[in-house]
Design brief:
Chain lengths: 257, 243
């Protein structure tokens, strides 16, 4: 650990939120991630895009060990993801994940979905966990759906519950895996607005999304992937207006109508 | 040989001797279900295990017990095993046979239930860093169980009737006691009509229990149907306003 010679020794040196070094992931013969180097600073908002099958979901799913990387180093908030249970759990407590298919627990109410982890992982009492859950359900603007089951909610509402559920563990990093891809068009906005709000509050975010409007408005950096590789990384303006690679130009042509 | 007597049917139905046989049938079924579920759950877990030996043993078990008639299994346990010096009383023989056989069927039902739970559910639990025991108890098991109820109900219905095979090794359940009454009085139709009525009553009661269970465990989805009419999801915020 480097000591700051200017006298701010009490403050530990800033650790990157996520650091990936030469990460590889294989599915049999197929190379899903091919020498990924990526650094995400705290408070940074990253949008990962690229054609389907380019490895973007695999990339963020490796960060919280939903998928196990085969080679290379991954550090999350300074903790090495080395397949040890203790470190995996620590990293998962630090990261919240939102899935394309919501993955709410269908047999539990919205509230129970939100309080399960705070109670079992953080040892909160039911009352404490409920207060916390209501705080975040209010934040995603659905406090009055607390006693409903996921099946009674619209897709947009379910995804916002999923965001609240992830926030209940007070994560330092939020991972979004195509959070709006399974939504009806009229519900995309409410989820994106919720994500924007999180971004404004300084949450570190990695989002796999095809919502280029969101990327333009919110992202600090676009990471463009193709065939398991990071092909291009740039600020949104630069990426959208002056893509450096032919592959990115073709991709942008195809998705921006 | 006498003529058919409806009154005798009623007499046999209320025959104390036969009624005790009904209790034995219920007991065999209940023990078969409980024992079969416990053993079946273990075999299902073995079968789903990444360990090739464990899953191989489980696969063999299911293959063996589903591939041979329960009747032979019972006879072998009762009459064959004593040759090897293994001897149980009749009731134990029947229980062992029924449980071993039922477990093979239930193992497959349990396994299919677990496999039908979406992988996204487990991933969500991992992402929330829920401990494995909590994930199993609170997430996978309840969802798998709900999917298991219909085939489970079917299997228990079959087991209830299969207990009649235990009559062959002289367990005095409904079938055996009907045989004994029949041999004593030669009122074949009358005796078996009463026995049939008991089987129908038992399977009907089980049907009702199964419906209640299905309703109970699908309450999250039925609640949807019930409340959707009364109160559709409403927009509370500007964010949610839809055309």
């Amino acid at each position: 650990m480097a000591i700051d010679i200017d006298g701010e020794a009490a403050k530990p040196r800033e650790v990157s939120a996520v650091r990936m070094e030469a990460v590889y992931k294989y599915y049999g013969e197929f190379t899903a991630l091919n020498e990924i180097d990526l650094k995400v600073e705290r408070g940074e908002r990253i949008v990962v895009c690229g054609p389907s099958g380019s490895g973007k979901s695999t990339l963020i799913r490796c960060i919280n060990h939903i998928e196990k990387h085969d080679q290379g180093l991954i550090y999350v908030n300074g903790t090495e993801l080395d397949h040890q249970r203790k470190n995996i759990d620590a990293i998962r407590r630090d990261t919240g994940m939102v899935f394309q298919s919501f993955n709410l627990f269908p047999h539990m109410t919205t509230l129970d979905n939100c309080i399960l982890a705070p109670m079992t992982v953080n040892g909160m009492t039911r009352a404490e966990a409920k207060d916390l859950a209501m705080h975040f359900l209010t934040k995603v603007r659905i406090p009055d759906q607390a006693d409903k089951f996921p099946g009674q909610l619209s897709g947009g509402q379910q995804q916002r519950v999923a965001i609240a559920r992830a926030l209940c563990l007070r994560p330092k990093i939020m991972l979004f895996d195509e959070p709006t891809s399974a939504l009806d068009p009229e519900m995309v906005k409410e989820v994106l607005e919720t994500m924007k709000k999180l971004a404004e509050e300084g949450m570190t975010m990695l989002c796999v999304t095809h919502e280029m409007g969101f990327a333009r408005e919110v992202a600090d950096r676009i990471v463009f992937m193709n065939e398991g590789k990071i092909v291009e990384q740039a600020a949104p303006e630069e990426f959208f207006n002056h893509p450096r690679t032919e592959r990115a130009r073709v991709f942008l042509d195809q998705i921006i109508h | 040989m006498s003529h058919f007597s409806p009154a005798a049917c009623v007499d046999y139905f209320f025959n104390y001797f036969l009624m005790k046989g009904v209790l034995v049938t219920i007991g065999l079924t209940a023990a078969g279900v409980v024992g079969g579920l416990i053993l079946g759950m273990g075999i299902a877990l073995m079968r789903m295990s990444p360990n090739a030996v464990l899953s191989g043993v489980a696969r063999f078990y299911v293959w063996f017990f589903r591939g041979t008639p329960l009747l032979i299994q019972l006879v072998v346990i009762y009459s064959g095993l004593p040759q090897l010096g293994i001897k149980f009383n009749v009731i134990t023989c029947a229980l062992v046979g029924l449980i071993l056989n039922e477990a093979a069927y239930l193992a497959e039902i349990v396994r299919s239930g677990f496999m039908a739970v979406s992988p996204g559910q487990r991933e969500a639990a991992w992402a929330l860093s829920l401990p494995r025991s909590v994930t199993f108890r609170r997430i996978t098991l309840p969802q798998a169980f709900r999917l298991m109820i219909p085939p489970l109900g079917n299997s228990i219905n079959s087991l209830l009737k299969a207990t009649s095979l235990a009559s062959v090794i002289s367990v005095e359940e409904i079938m055996r006691r009907s045989d004994m009454l029949m041999q004593e009085h030669f009122q074949i139709l009358e005796v078996y009509a009463a026995a049939t009525a008991y089987y129908l009553i038992l399977t009907s009661v089980w049907d009702a229990v199964q419906r209640r269970l299905e309703k109970h465990f699908s309450r999250s989805t039925t609640a949807k149907a019930r409340r959707a009419g009364a109160k559709a999801p409403t927009a509370q915020t500007g964010l949610e306003a839809r055309a």
